[in-house]
Amino acid sequence: MTNHDRWFIQIRKGLAELAVMILMKDSAVYGYQLTKALKTNPMFELSDGSIYPLLKRLEANQLVDTYWDNPDTGLRRKYYQLSKKGAQVLSERLNLFQESMDLLWKLQKEVTNDEDQKH
């Protein structure tokens, strides 16, 4: 499997979205802050510009609350924090992800046991 495999790319996008939601669950963060945090793990690494379409999608779906800071110096930053709806969606998605992984591992174990019994 290569990192360019379409399936892997789609899984990675979904996991990156979950990771972003987790990172903004308890405190407001801005885009570059998220990108920097995600770059610590190659699975979640996004280019600097690709975080913003993801954030726009979360905002359009009312999964985040946003505000702009008003610094005395420097550039203004838009901050994102998981909304109440977003926290509920995150919980549901994490549960679904866990259930899916449990089911896949159970299936893998059953297939392995069936193969062992045939030999």
Automatic annotation (TrEMBL):
Residues 22-91 form the Transcription regulator PadR N-terminal domain. InterPro entries: Metal_resp_DNA-bind_regulator, Tscrpt_reg_PadR_N, WH-like_DNA-bd_sf, WH_DNA-bd_sf. Signal peptide: none annotated. PANTHER family: DNA-BINDING PROTEIN YIZB-RELATED (PTHR33169:SF25), PADR-FAMILY TRANSCRIPTIONAL REGULATOR (PTHR33169). This is PadR family transcriptional regulator, regulatory protein PadR.
